[in-house]
From TrEMBL:
InterPro entries cross-referenced by the UniProt entry: CHP03086, DinB/YfiT-like, Maleyloyr_isom, MDMPI_metal-binding
Mycothiol-dependent maleylpyruvate isomerase metal-binding domain ranges (all copies): 6-126
Record-given protein name: Uncharacterized protein (TIGR03086 family)
A molecular function (GO) term: metal ion binding
Amino acid sequence: MLIERATAPLLDLIPELEPHLEARTPCTDYTVRQLINHLLFWAPSLTGGATKEAIAPPAAAESDLDLTTGDCLAALTASITTTVKAWSDPAAWEGTTYMGGPMELPAELVGAMVAGEFVVHGWDLARAAGRDLPVDPDIAEYLEAELAKTAEQARQMGIFGPEVAVAKSAPAMHRVLGLTGRDPGWTVS
């Protein structure tokens, strides 16, 4: 299943993040801990997209709630596993659904956004830990095509940063990163 293949590298990475919780990430607004909080904050909405429920996040803003107390790595693994299970149902990809609010969107679009969230933020976390994220090239090509459909709108909404120029001959994952406003050569300093 697409969602399982997209999230497997992130799930493999999570146990290695403990010593890097305060490290900066390529997602400039977040440290590793803050990015984990972001993923935990949006997890119910991502899962709700698969079950066709408009589940709002648990607070008005991510900064209003610290979900990284306790064993945040176990909580992250559990939340991603729950989301993957929900999106593994073929019915999740059919018709329309929600992404945390009352506006209906095509389920395939939301599913691609969920996969992109885990792959791109997985890369952010891997780079913060000084590692690469081994993303299946087929998944990266799929995400490039899907994310390109909404990239300009995502930039206008502040979800993606300004596009980073990446050669068309570069690996698909590098093109995904450039599309989302990330420099594929970013390293932790």
